[in-house]
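Memo to structure team: turn this sequence into structure tokens by end of day. - J.P.
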Amino acid sequence: MAQSFAKAFYNSKAWEQCRAAYISSVYGLCARCDNEPGLILHHLITLKPSNINNPDITLNFDNLTYLCLKHHNEAHGKQVELRYMFDSNGNVIPIVEVD
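Reply from structure team:
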């Protein structure tokens, strides 16, 4: 969830367009997985109140990477154990291997 200072940015047309263009440029794939879909567009330089209005930080493709949930959590130092996911029909399926 976006921090309060960043909510207006994440709801902006500029971010929507940048996000869509970046995801398209990487074919929707996680930067760290081999041919797995991404989920979260991650800023390499963390957004802060002091840089939220700087497009060289917020909208620069060189500061973005598209990650799956597992790799996004790793980027933030979080270990989340996923036990289930959904198939293309929305059915819950168990994940056999848990990292």
